[in-house]
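Hi team,

Filling in the usual template for the complex we talked about on Friday. All components are listed, including any nucleic acid strands or ligand strings, so the model treats them as one assembly.

SUBMITTER: L.P.
PURPOSE: interface mapping
COMPONENTS: two
RESIDUES: 608
SEQUENCES:
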Amino acid sequence: MSSSQIRHILDLSPKERTRLVDSFDCVICDCDGVLWTVFDPIPGVGEALKTLQTHGKTLRYITNNSVRTFDHYAAQFRTLGITLTPSDIIHPALAIVRHLKSIHFEGLIFCLATQPFKNVLINAGFELTEGPDQPLEESFKKIIATVHDRAPVRAVVIDVDFNINYPKLLRAELYLKNDPKCLLIAGATDKVLHARKDFNLIGPGHFLDVLEQSTGRKATVLGKPGKELANLVGDIFGIEDRGRVLFVGDMLEQDMVFASRCGFHKMLVLSGGASKDDMLQERDVERVPDYYADRLEDLTKLFE
Amino acid sequence: MSSSQIRHILDLSPKERTRLVDSFDCVICDCDGVLWTVFDPIPGVGEALKTLQTHGKTLRYITNNSVRTFDHYAAQFRTLGITLTPSDIIHPALAIVRHLKSIHFEGLIFCLATQPFKNVLINAGFELTEGPDQPLEESFKKIIATVHDRAPVRAVVIDVDFNINYPKLLRAELYLKNDPKCLLIAGATDKVLHARKDFNLIGPGHFLDVLEQSTGRKATVLGKPGKELANLVGDIFGIEDRGRVLFVGDMLEQDMVFASRCGFHKMLVLSGGASKDDMLQERDVERVPDYYADRLEDLTKLFE
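RESULT (copied from the run log):
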């Protein structure tokens, strides 16, 4: 589909609305930008989710944000009137644990991520090493001597790390270069973090780029739009028919590409990081949604 | 010239040797990788420099390394038997001071660099703001609130910063996005730092890339191979005829491209970051040297 043919769901005819509503049994929503933003609530979200449930649609969530703990997510969903259970939501830390267990991974992990992310790995039984967090003396020679510690690291895991710094990147680079078998695994690879309207900031994907360029490696990506996550998701959520899933997201790269890779129907909402102009200018078919809406709330009008 | 035609200077005939030696009055050397490496001295360098002086060649130095102070450089050159004066050497911090003075810059500078670099700017009378150096609480909202300080910053300067971190990059991004007139000025833009043979590490240029990508700006580059430095260098060193300069460096990008942009003769030495294979595989004419040698010492054999 070319981007000029994308229909706003409220421009659909009554017949098309019915056809769309009947085309999916399960709605998978991204969270940031769809359910809420960093700074603002998005209107009508709680009601929209409840309407979908009332009409027999299964709800699931996939976010690239592992910074919140499950308890935080559960509390946030409670404000929307939704009871969240652990099996309803995937974020990169959970997907990485699942992946590591599936490959029977053993050994030390060097982890560039936030503490909530690290806790998910620790609670799953993995052993982590991390840092340095404090500034080091300004000597290239001494910094190399510090970070080149030859610890028996068997995987470098990189996600959002609000305090990522040059010594940590150098340390990751050295583990990866010293041991061709050391894995490189990424969670969120967003190049842009959307904070509020017209306010996008440097995302964690840039730092993965630095590591990939300096080591010549390609990461296994277990956040959206990672192919490895797309392979896992049906299994995690017990999805039998990917053609009966509607994926709702606010980002062209993370959400639409991911949904394309999964074989889901894909709907873009304009309540987050992507504008209507971004969507209309997009030429990459993987990044182009099947439908769009201003916000999740619009979807409920199809049931009226 | 295609890379397969590049001659090793010791393969030149006696007549060609004489012609090469007579073609330049001034030798400009890169430092790291040509005069010394991070870990090892390079043999024969002191003698080579003295031979060049004895034969009436003027010596000058251009390095991308502003991490050493002038006193450190002077001490390092003394071990080679060379007396260095401040006007003999350019590094990015000095070139940036010169540039800022030439444009009559006034105002606050946000500086991502090492302390020796910052001291050059401070000693030239500029006012800097810097940091945060310490890790911040892991909340995107709080980090934005901290770094989005709306200080009246009129230039972001980025060079090697061994403790560069995400909050500093975010802070730079916000100054640049909030004020279209805020300048973006870069020193060293090396993507690779060469430590020793077959041991290359992440260079500072990656972080400039992140800023350029996230802000849509292009930096004024006052380290090698910056066009802006190439414009300034003749003036700084009082060079009357760029065609009478031999530039000696160890990096294809920083040194050969820079020398191409300056209109210098260019010689690659294999004592640093680039290997003979790198050179032979190179197809970009700006990155291909006119001659090559194993090390600076080889040049003295042309005078025998």
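MY TAKE: Chain A has a mean pLDDT of 96. Chain A has two domains: 7-91+234-302, 93-221.

Thanks, L.
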